[in-house]
Automatic annotation (TrEMBL):
GHMP kinase N-terminal domain: residues covered: 50-122
Signal peptide: none
GHMP kinase C-terminal domain mapped to chain residues: 188-256
Keyword Lipid biosynthesis: yes
CC annotations in GO: cytosol
Name used for this protein in its record: Mevalonate kinase
Biological pathway: Isoprenoid biosynthesis; isopentenyl diphosphate biosynthesis via mevalonate pathway; isopentenyl diphosphate from (R)-mevalonate: step 1/3
Length: 283
């Protein structure tokens, strides 16, 4: 049996989501596939899934349509796809609960938004330990650009925790402002008001900059996208590198111009579509 789970792109609310505030995540067309067979490389997540739901000696191998360096959530996707292979009839809730437990045991930190995207797919409004709400949205005019720099999520989460310790009121205020814009983004995405959705990305980016998780390379890709006419742009995920996202305007020139600008600024454009299907049995 082969199973697969999608990767994800964080649209709004990263970091704040770790502290109980909402975020919006979309599952992407890049997928991670798991089949029976001997694994190579980092097998911690597969091993933990087998220890939870499998029989001793069961082996699985993973392959993905995307590179692990992009930060598309391969650890969560491999965990979810392996659990699905072990129990194809488990409910999404059962898959989510077990996969999130495994990811937390191994990584120690994380909101579980990437696990939710891998299990449920689509586009989700997510609050840790509380809400997984699918959003019905139209095709998002999203462009994804990779900085070429692999970010370390755990140390960025720790940096924000340190900042919060030093200046709790300020960081709490930033999180509250992010939560407010996430709620507005949810409404505007459902309406398909991409101009406003883009503006809200800009606001989110300002707060992420204040949290200290942006980088020079991210900023240069973001400003290049905006100069080329993007409705808005921001980093996506933990920051420090990894990917940025931008919303391109309609019209034949909208997308190519934004993509060209990101490339000229030294970024790699990654072609993905959003709102992809969650975990599934392939064959
Ligand atoms: O680096 P990524 O794409 O896994 O995103 C991390 C997002 C954080 O909010 C910083 C952490 C989390 O688990 O929610």
């Amino acid at each position: 049996m082969t199973t697969s789970a999608p990767g994800k792109v964080m649209l709004y609310g990263e970091h704040a989501v770790v502290y109980g505030y909402p975020c919006i995540v979309t599952a992407i067309s890049e997928r991670l596939f798991v089949s029976e067979g001997t694994a190579v490389g980092d097998t911690r997540f597969i091993d933990a899934a087998v220890a939870a739901w499998g029989k001793p000696g069961q082996k699985f191998s993973a392959r993905s349509s995307f590179s692990g360096k992009y930060g598309f959530g391969s650890s969560s996707a491999v965990t979810v796809a392996t659990l699905k292979a072990l129990r194809p009839h488990a409910t999404n809730r059962e898959l989510f609960d077990m996969a999130y437990k495994i990811v937390l045991d191994i990584q120690k930190v994380g909101s579980g938004f990437d696990v939710a995207a891998a299990v449920y797919g689509g586009t989700l409004y997510y609050i840790k330990n509380k809400t997984i709400e699918p959003l019905v949205i139209k095709d998002m005019p999203l462009v994804v650009g990779y900085t070429g720099i692999k970010a370390d999520t755990v140390s960025l989460i720790n940096n924000v925790a340190q900042k919060k310790k030093e200046n709790p009121e300020k960081v709490e205020r930033i999180f509250e402002a992010i939560a407010k814009l996430v709620d507005e983004a949810k409404t505007k995405m459902i309406e398909g008001d991409w101009e406003r959705v883009g503006k809200l990305m800009d606001f989110n980016q300002e707060y992420l900059r204040d949290l200290g998780v942006s980088s020079e390379k991210l900023e240069s890709l973001i400003s290049a996208a905006k100069s080329a006419g993007a409705y808005g742009a921001k980093l996506s995920g933990a920051g420090g590198g990894d990917c940025m996202i931008a919303l391109h305007p309609n019209g034949v020139q909208g997308k190519p111009l934004v993509e060209k600008a990101i490339k000229e600024a030294g970024g790699e454009v990654i072609n993905v579509t959003t709102n992809a299907e969650g975990v599934r049995v392939e064959s």
